[in-house]
Amino acid sequence: MFIDTHMHEMTYSKDSFLKLxxxxxxxxxxxxGAVCITDxxxxxxxxxxxxxxxxxxxxVFVGIEYYSLQGDIVAFGxxxxxxxxxxxxxFIDLVKAQGGxxxxxxxxxxxxxxxxxxxRMVKGLDGLEVLNxxxxxxxxxxxxxxxxxxxxxxMGSSDCHVPEKVGVCATWFPEEIRTIDGFLAAxxxxxxxxxxxxxxxxxxxxx
Length: 207
Ligand SMILES: [Zn+2]
Description:
Layout: E1 2-7, H1 20-30, E2 34-37, H2 46-56, E3 60-62, E4 64-68, E5 71-76, H3 88-97, E6 101-104, E7 127-132, H4 137-150, E8 153-157, E9 169-172, H5 180-189, E10 193-198, E11 201-204
Parallel strand pairs: 1-2, 2-3, 6-7, 7-8
Antiparallel strand pairs: 1-9, 4-5, 5-6, 9-10, 10-11
Bound molecules: zinc ion (ZN).
The site of zinc ion (ZN) has 5 residues, from loops.
């Protein structure tokens, strides 16, 4: 099953132009089985997502894209997050202490918000976003090299803020996932693969 693991909804991501209805509409058209809303330094969307999933049956998992002092990290499975900026390592430790999972978002994107060489310094990251819909192919290739070298799980996601980007990249999981607990369990197994959408369907990215 394909899941877009990093997306921005406009209610709490002020730089997004996407409403959840539109995200899910496009996601279903492309063949995604679930979506993840990971707003910038916010998890406020959680309740709205739960109501939506109950009403429609379409799984919407809420995580966070947290801007640590060294760069953006996407996390799931945490109850709360720091309101001030803390170091990447402190944030990863906090995620682990709460039983959550996390991956480095667009580590080499040229916006100074990736972990870059800090990837070699931090301990405890689960995965690395090697396909990001808003990042250059060179930066994605470099991320894939680092993932291999550091032994991290690899993810793909759109990081969408506009309709054209919804689902352009995604992550393939071997199992069907319906709940956040199922998502966390699948994530921890690490059998996922990055994927991209082209010519009407998803393709697994071969590193
Ligand atoms: Zn993002």
